[in-house]
């Protein structure tokens, strides 16, 4: 149990939007929940040979019954799920002795403890250039049936975004069901939501039985996160959508005519691996085309990463899998879901903002972000730290840290960290404060989050925060006034969000991650009527649409765009769709400057491939990329061979025995036919030359002559052979090699970036290059 990655879902937690964070509170819950499960029992994910799962389960039961035939207190192990599509195996709660029995049974491959993953928590379509009747939103592409499966906190079936007016009957190929449960019946589904299921056996084996006064043992969404992601990916068109008058406009999913299948595997404290695998397993069986996963854990080797393993099973069935990159940025090497067969999505800003102007007593003006849409605040006294409460907790406005006699009627300054952002506002309001200024620390940089606070509140970046605190330290009677400007458009965008997790990938550094960036900051989408917009129980407000942030919000954008591309190119593989999205990505903002990064280095820093992958998604260009990098199941298995995986570890993915190429055939992880290049040099090593091979498939003009253009990373010479690729027909495949020569070894770890572009007529097929010295 102590190995569980238990992360607590806290309302709008700091420092990462809509995610889980480690703290003393988490430790308390870990100890508390451990008592709910016998110290001799633990839930495991067990991998078996494809033909052996039922045999192992049967052998386990038979041997245990024989051994304990005279023990009246004996009970059989709890088998939670049998996995047959995403992987081969099962999950069960076992004692140590029972686990040893499983390990000694023929057909067993591996086992590891279950754990909780975390959720990575509209105008987006317009910002991305999607317009009804034009381009990807034309009648032909919108009429075909594409089914998006979302593994999340469930769905709110009555929401206006999920109405099925004018939709055709459910496609006959659909094999799913609408499972009944608490506050959810078979009639809750329609021609829009065509499937709904709940998976909680793994979660309850870790946490204990779900409290149905606050959640539902069904596909109904009690939190809002699942409704938000589903409506972002495939919600119908809703005019005049807004959050208390803010962000008013047309709300629409990226592929608004897609069908939705909701697989609820995430609950109040997270998503158990065993439940997530079961959800993916069901989605594959049901017949979805796209799987959207706005969740993840820490980076780990792929052979112990259930999302990577289950995602591989989906890819083998020609299902596109989109995953959030995580909310642990801007720290390097924090990206999760880094397997190359998954599309890993970073989060970005759109040009829509919610500015608030804070004018402090020395007449300096600070620009922040706020969803409050009330009257301006005239000059009010400021309270912070010792002028707001006692002890260091008052700096962060932790619960019960503020004193009413010190803060009543004042604007309270709170630093981010140590508690949830909306929880800080709750504490300020409870203590009688009139408003809150939420200041980012250096780690959060210039991030300007617009949160649904319970009182007037303004989020302020690190630089303006320093100005504010410097003024406060030198003023005898510090004051501030605040003017709320509502919703505005035209800010510099896109820009990578500071919280978005960064590469390089720890699990597979030879493949650059994340892959792409999509809108994930201050996103308006559908919300559950059972949850307040702030996620605080004390908040009585209920909304139809909410504004939240996270790579959780970026992921369903890509899921919906993948569905759009699949509706046009039904015979494309998941790798081809991924390649099209990556090689057509934009790298400049709406000012025609390099896309910026809101990370700790400052808003003016240009984003790199470790922040936004190939760039920012451009759906209109992605439908016609010219060339694509296709990758087969065998290519991915050879990639695992190149990582020196044992045959047993490869069996986790292949399901049957796979023999790695031999006879002098040298495999390199960098040779995976991927749309980007990741080159790693070791300081002081003799190897200063790396050569990769790639193969591209022509999906554009039948006859096209592509010329190679290279922008070299600093300190590296790049040679492409051949420099010209002459295509004569569609689907023709041609190969080339790229040689990277390090000019000199470096004394410290560092990275540099470049690009390779294949150009022919209107096509510019762009692949980022990242070079790392370690």
From TrEMBL:
Record's GO cellular component terms: extracellular region
Keyword field: Glycoprotein, Hydrolase, Protease, Serine protease, Signal
Subcellular location: Secreted
The keyword Signal belongs to this UniProt entry's keyword annotation: yes
GO biological process: proteolysis
Pfam families: fn3_6, Inhibitor_I9, PA, Peptidase_S8
Chain ranges of the Peptidase S8/S53 domain: 144-600
Chief site of localization: secreted
Domain Subtilisin-like protease fibronectin type-III: 671-771
Catalytic site positions: 152 (charge relay system), 225 (charge relay system), 552 (charge relay system)
Domain PA, residue spans: 401-468
Domain Inhibitor I9: 44-120
A GO term, aspect molecular function: serine-type endopeptidase activity
Annotated family: Belongs to the peptidase S8 family.
PANTHER family: PROPROTEIN CONVERTASE SUBTILISIN/KEXIN (PTHR10795)
Name this polypeptide is given: PA domain
Organism phylogeny: Eukaryota, Viridiplantae, Streptophyta, Embryophyta, Tracheophyta
């Amino acid at each position: 149990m102590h190995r569980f990655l238990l992360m607590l879902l806290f309302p709008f937690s700091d420092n990462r939007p809509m995610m889980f964070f480690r703290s003393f509170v988490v430790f308390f819950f870990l100890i508390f929940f451990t008592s709910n499960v016998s110290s001799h029992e633990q839930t495991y994910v067990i991998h078996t040979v494809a033909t052996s799962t039922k045999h192992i389960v049967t052998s386990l039961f038979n041997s245990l019954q024989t051994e304990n035939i005279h023990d009246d207190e004996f009970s059989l192990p709890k088998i939670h799920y049998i996995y047959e599509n995403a992987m081969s195996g099962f999950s069960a709660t076992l004692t140590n002795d029972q686990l040893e029995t499983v390990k000694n049974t023929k057909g067993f491959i591996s086992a590891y403890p279950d754990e909780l993953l975390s959720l990575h928590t509209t105008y987006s379509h317009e910002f991305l250039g999607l317009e009804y009747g034009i381009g990807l939103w034309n009648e032909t592409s919108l009429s075909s049936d594409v089914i998006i499966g979302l593994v999340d906190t469930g769905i709110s079936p009555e929401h206006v975004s999920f109405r099925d007016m004018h939709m055709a009957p459910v496609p006959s190929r659909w094999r799913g069901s609408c499972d009944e449960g608490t506050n959810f019946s078979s009639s809750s589904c329609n021609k829009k939501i065509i499937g709904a299921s709940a998976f909680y056996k793994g979660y309850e084996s870790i946490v204990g039985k779900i409290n149905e006064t606050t959640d539902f043992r069904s596909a109904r969404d009690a939190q809002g996160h699942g409704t938000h992601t589903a409506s972002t990916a495939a919600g119908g068109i809703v005019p005049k959508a807004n959050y208390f008058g803010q962000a008013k406009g047309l709300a629409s999913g990226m592929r608004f005519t897609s069908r939705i299948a909701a697989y609820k595997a995430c609950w109040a404290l997270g998503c158990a691996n065993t439940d997530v695998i079961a959800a993916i397993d069901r989605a594959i069986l049901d017949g979805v085309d796209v799987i959207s996963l706005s969740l993840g854990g820490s980076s780990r080797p792929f052979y112990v990463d259930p999302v990577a393993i289950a995602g591989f099973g989906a890819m083998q069935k020609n299902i596109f899998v989109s995953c959030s990159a995580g909310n642990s940025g801007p720290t390097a090497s924090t990206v999760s879901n880094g397997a190359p067969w998954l599309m890993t999505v970073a989060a970005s800003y759109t040009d829509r903002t919610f500015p608030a102007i804070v004018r402090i007593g020395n007449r300096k003006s600070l620009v922040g972000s706020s969803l409050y849409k009330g009257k301006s605040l005239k000059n009010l006294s400021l309270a912070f730290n010792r002028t707001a409460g006692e002890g260091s907790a008052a700096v962060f406005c932790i619960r019960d840290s503020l004193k009413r006699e010190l803060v009543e009627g004042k604007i309270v300054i709170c630093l981010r960290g140590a508690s949830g952002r909306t929880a800080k506002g709750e504490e300020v309001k409870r203590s009688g404060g009139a408003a809150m200024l939420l200041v980012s620390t250096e780690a959060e940089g210039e991030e300007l989050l617009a949160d649904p606070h319970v009182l007037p509140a303004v989020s302020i970046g690190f630089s303006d925060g320093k100005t504010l605190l410097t003024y406060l330290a030198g003023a005898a009677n510090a004051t501030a006034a605040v003017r709320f400007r509502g919703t505005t458009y035209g800010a510099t965008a896109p820009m990578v969000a500071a919280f978005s997790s960064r590469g390089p990938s720890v699990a597979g550094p030879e493949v650059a991650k994340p892959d792409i960036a999509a809108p994930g900051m201050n996103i308006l989408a559908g919300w559950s009527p059972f949850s307040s917009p702030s996620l605080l129980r004390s908040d009585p407000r209920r909304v139809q649409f909410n504004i939240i942030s996270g790579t959780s919000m970026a992921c369903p954008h890509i899921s919906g765009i993948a569905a759009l591309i699949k509706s046009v190119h039904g015979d494309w593989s998941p790798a081809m769709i991924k390649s099209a999205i990556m090689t057509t990505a934009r790298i400049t903002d709406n000012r025609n400057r390099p896309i910026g990064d809101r990370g700790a280095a400052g808003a003016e820093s240009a984003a790199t491939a470790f922040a936004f992958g190939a760039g920012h998604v451009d759906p209109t260009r992605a439908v016609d990329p010219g060339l694509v990098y296709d990758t087969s199941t065998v290519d991915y298995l050879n990639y695992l061979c190149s990582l020196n995986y044992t045959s047993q570890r490869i069996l986790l993915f292949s399901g049957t025995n796979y023999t790695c190429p031999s006879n002098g055939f040298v495999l390199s992880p960098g040779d995976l036919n991927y749309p980007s290049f990741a080159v790693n040099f070791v300081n002081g090593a003799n190897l200063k030359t790396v050569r990769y091979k790639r193969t591209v498939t022509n999906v554009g003009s039948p006859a096209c002559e592509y010329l190679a253009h290279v922008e070299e990373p600093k300190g590296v010479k790049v040679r492409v052979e051949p420099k010209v690729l002459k295509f004569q027909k569609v689907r023709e495949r041609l190969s080339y090699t790229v040689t990277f020569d390090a000019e000199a070894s470096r004394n410290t770890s560092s990275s540099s970036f470049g690009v390779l572009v294949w150009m022919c007529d209107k096509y510019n097929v762009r692949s980022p290059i990242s070079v790392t010295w370690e």
